[in-house]
Amino acid sequence: MKNIFKLQSKFEPAGDQPKAISELLKGLDKGMKKQTLLGATGTGKTFTMANVIAAHNKPTLVIAHNKTLAAQLAQEFKEFFPDAAVHYFVSYYDYYQPEAYMPSSDTYIEKDASINKEIDRLRHASTQALLTRADTIIVASVSCIYGLGSPAEYEKTNIKLEIGMKMDRLTLMKKLVSIHFERTNADLNSGQFRATGSRVEFMPVSETVMYQVELLGGKISGIIKIDPVTSQILKEEKNIFIFPAKHFITEDAKTKVALVNIKKELNAQLKHFEKEGKLLEAERIKRRTNYDLAMIKEVGYCSGIENYSRHLSGKKEGEPPETLLSYFPHDKNGKPEFLTLIDESHVTLPQLQGMFAGDASRKKTLVEYGFRLPSAKDNRPLRYEEFSERIGQVIYTSATPSEQERTLSEQIVEQIIRPTGLVDPETIIRPVTAQTSGSYPGQTRLPSPDAEGYGGQVQDFIKETENTIKRGFRVLATTLTKKMAEDLSVYLKDKKIKSEYLHSDIKTLDRIRILTEFRKGKFDVLVGVNLLREGLDLPEVALIGILDADKEGFLRSDTALIQTIGRAARNSEGRVILYADHMTGSMERALKETIRRRNTQLAYNKKHGITPKTILKNIKDITEEMESEHGKAVNAELNIDLEVFKKAYAKELKLDKSKITKTKDKKTGENITEVKLHMSDEERSNLVYEKIIKIKEKEMSKAVKELDFETAAILRDEIGVLKNRLGKQY
């Protein structure tokens, strides 16, 4: 069989990697269903898995437990396989509040979500690659086990256009509408089209380019690929395939049958409610369902159409939904013909196992109180057993595999020796509180280096941080709560230490951007909660402070501590300070395992004469690849404006916000804020943002009046970016 993957790397497998690669491939060849790679942090698990993918020669699904880690893995696999179709598949919600009902307070919570269009585009790119290419690697979150729509219908309803094909303008427009493209007269966004004269222009959901189709004499006379920002012709195509703008799509004939079946289910549910005396619930479900039926009949779609997926797909009650897994190749008997890698499995597996129960409980309440039909229960994530049946051969990867992986796996492959010779970092224990007498259970408390003047964990961490920054390195700090992370970040800034915080409330793409800026040195300290544990590759970090390490729990378990300590294992000068007043069982187990690995690594280095070297890794930002051409135009324009305005208001920007005076401009009548003394960088930027917003809003209004919608759109998005930077809700 021809190799479909071409691995590109300037490095050859080293350390424990050759042995791990060989053993895992032997396991796959023997037909082992489950294996575990116990790879210590920094031993190059991703490179090992890239070699396994290349040699195994099958499409691959990589599952990560959060979006940030998934983005990092996607970028790494793109570098290893530049010619392959490497895609990123995560939930497209920046914010998601599922539909719910709380009977105790009679509170109905309507579904509320903020969809990230760029991530939606990447999801479509993933499914299209799986249907059209063999050399596909999809890096996904647990979103991959949620209902997605039938791949057969998705593939079947695509439109093929080619030069010379019989087609008129109206027919093409109808075809685009039938696969859920929307018509617009303004600037094009993904999943939209517009018609001018004999031309139809559209932007596919999976690309950031525009296609222009020329129709003359009842035929397609030209298909041109265009850059939507510069209007530059990129390529003249002979033929193209247009996939649907939405994953949930059904043929007209099936839709008609589905409408009949939904109506039947509604009537049955109404009878059930009337029999139970639930008149309110009966009226509620009647109104909602009839409205949805009317929408599906008229436009082929409705809000929450996924709740009718069982009827639209023709599945039986209780049958599992189609998911991303359904898009991967299978043999004629339905056996999966792809490899699955579950990264940081000790965290990812519990997530996969817990999704179904939570969703089922919420849906049950909605059905009981007339907010949804019973068939909505079949719009669900896969049960863990169903997921296991659909993934074929799997390799779990973790530095700290749980008992579950150890029990399930037919073999466990250890990878402890790092190719760089780096060893697990030195670990130090220091008190949380200011120096007092006392001891840990079972051992005497070691005093701090300066016992008399020891001011507690925060003061000591600041001192260590300043020394680390002076040496040109960066620092991580982990706290127990989001509020503590934010407060510590602010406190460090007050101490003239450049810092930022990172936690789950920050949007997906912003998290990736913060990590990239951290690596580039725009700030020196990153404070987080559990997002800083698994999988983050930060070789510039030479110090990690684990605050309140003796607070037993999920965030301070032995697994969590080992993972956190591992963040410093990519730097030859890496150190970890655990701040604790008591030696917990978790700390003891974590330190024991860390010391075991460190001793093994030191012995190997001594035997082979290896001097540890800090990992050198390119700093790349996946958000640059995710960004649309339109988004790039917006940001380019914005950056120019910021520089211009900073120069224009240079005098004001040298002043301090502590003394504010407000006056009116004599010419324009606009309020002007004047400040005195010295401003912080953040305050300086905010002032510039506020001034630019006012001017941009006027320019946008002018562009709309002149019907220059493309300019208006760029201005609109500039304003949106600026307002977000100011931290306001619009």
Features:
29 strands; six-stranded mixed sheet; Rossmann fold; alpha/beta; Penicillin-binding protein 1b fold; 4 domains
Secondary structure layout:
Blueprint: H1 17-29, E1 34-39, H2 45-56, E2 60-63, H3 67-80, E3 85-89, E4 93-97, E5 100-102, E6 107-109, E7 112-115, H4 117-132, E8 136-140, H5 151-156, E9 159-162, H6 169-178, E10 182-183, E11 192-196, E12 199-203, E13 210-216, E14 219-226, E15 233-237, E16 239-242, H7 252-276, H8 279-299, H9 309-313, E17 339-343, H10 345-368, H11 384-390, E18 394-398, H12 403-408, E19 411-415, E20 426-430, E21 439-440, E22 443-444, H13 457-470, E23 474-478, H14 482-494, E24 499-502, H15 508-520, E25 525-528, E26 541-546, H16 558-566, E27 575-579, H17 585-608, H18 622-626, H19 629-648, H20 650-653, E28 659-664, E29 671-676, H21 681-705, H22 709-725
Parallel strand pairs: 1-18, 1-19, 2-8, 2-17, 3-8, 10-11, 17-18, 20-27, 23-25, 23-26, 24-25, 26-27
Antiparallel strand pairs: 4-7, 5-6, 9-16, 11-12, 12-13, 13-14, 14-15, 21-22, 28-29
Helix pairs in contact: 1-2, 3-15, 7-8, 16-17, 19-21, 19-22, 21-22
Describe the structure.
- This protein is an alpha/beta fold.
- It is built from 22 helices and 29 strands.
- The longest helix is centred in the middle third of the chain and has 25 residues.
- The protein is globular, with a radius of gyration of 29 Å.
For the record, the CATH architecture of the largest domain stands as 3-Layer(aba) Sandwich
In total, the number of strands is 29
CATH class of the largest domain: Alpha Beta
- Specify the overall morphology: globular
The secondary-structure class comes to alpha/beta
- Structural Rg: 29 Å
Parts with pLDDT < 50 across at least 5 consecutive residues: 437-448, 625-630, 655-660
Strand order in space, largest sheet: 3-8-2-17-18-1-19
Structural domain count:
4
Total helical elements: 22
How would you sum up the major sheet?
A: 7 strands, parallel
What is the subunit arrangement here? single chain
User: What fold name stands as the CATH topology of the largest domain?
Assistant: Rossmann fold
Please indicate the percent range of residues in DSSP E strands (runs of 2 or more): 15-25%
Average pLDDT, rounded to a whole number, is 82
Q: Can you identify the CATH superfamily of the largest domain? A: P-loop containing nucleotide triphosphate hydrolases
Could you estimate the helical fraction of the residues in percent? 40-55%
Q: What gap, in angstroms, lies between the N and C termini?
A: 55 Å
